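Support reply, case 0932

Customer input (verbatim):
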Amino acid sequence: MSHPFLPPREPQQPQGPQQPQQRQGPQQQGPQQQGPRQPQRPQKPQRPQGPVEIPKALRGWMLLLVVLMTGVILYSSAPLPWLFLPLALSFASVGVAVYLLVLMGRARVRGVIRAWAVTMLVFASLSSLFTVGAIALQPIVGPFQSCIRDSVTLSGVHGCQTEYERSIERMTGVPVQQR
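Our regenerated output:
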């Protein structure tokens, strides 16, 4: 007799010559299974225990995203004509990060690598926002930077600082707090 929760056993075929099967009558039949047979669930595939293999297409896009974000970081403190370069690089890195997340979704990549891509997307978005802010404030910051660069004494630096604060007050309409 077999266990009710195990699948039924296959009858063993004799190794010798085949004998014709005799029909069994109702009194010769073995015990029948109770109730309808339960369908077996398909087993879930086992997760690999080792490091996850990243598809080659994703590796290239990940490397491009790293290169773009490195350019954003390196050129983020450049003066005005060069300040448009990190803006373009950060916009490009936002696009690459979104495309990379779409590819990761299609390839069903999970875990740390996907979290890294989301972090890079957030970082690229914030750097885009900060670069736009730096470009918007360039009419005030540019003269301040040149004034600081040309001043020789501490009183000259203090004069540059007060002029910078006045220009911020004129632009925003909010008084700057004195130290």
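We compared this against your earlier run and they match. Two observations from our side: The mean pLDDT is 80. The helical segments are 56-75, 80-107, 112-136, 138-150, 154-172. Please reopen the case if you see a mismatch on your end.
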